[in-house]
Amino acid sequence: MPQTIAITRQWQIHIPKSIRQVIDMKKPSMAEIKVENDTIIITPKKSGILELAGKYSKYAKGKNIDLDNIRDLIDYSDL
Predict the structure, then answer these.
(1) What ranges make up the beta strands (E) of the chain?
(2) Confidence grade of residue 74 (pLDDT, cut at 50, 70, 90)
(3) DSSP code at position 11
């Protein structure tokens, strides 16, 4: 199912909905990217942050943590 996509000035790409449906990707997540024989391969990865859910709940002090939108609070600029 090859598709042509654009690469932005910030080197970002958009994964088309039809591709996301094939790999059952329902929410934004992390991915591994590598090159093999001049081909870029992007592999979805499980989010490590979601695996930590509840581990630090004692520090929340009654605050509800919305895990569905937690990525909005994380600064990825240093990665």
Answers:
(1) 30-36, 39-45
(2) confident
(3) S
CB 30 within 8 A of CB 15: no
The whole-angstrom separation of Cα 67 and Cα 48 is 12
Is residue 44 classed as helix, strand or coil in its secondary structure?
Answer: strand
47 exposure class (CB count in 10 Å sphere: 0-12, 13-18, 19+) = middle
Distance between CA atoms of residues 51 and 31, nearest Å: 16
pLDDT at position 50 over 70: no
Query: In whole angstroms, what is the distance from residue 27 CA to residue 45 CA?
Result: 12
For residues 53 and 47, give the distance between their C-alpha atoms in angstroms, rounded to a whole number: 11
Question: pLDDT at position 46, please?
Answer: 72
Q: What are the beta bridge partners of residue 34?
A: 41
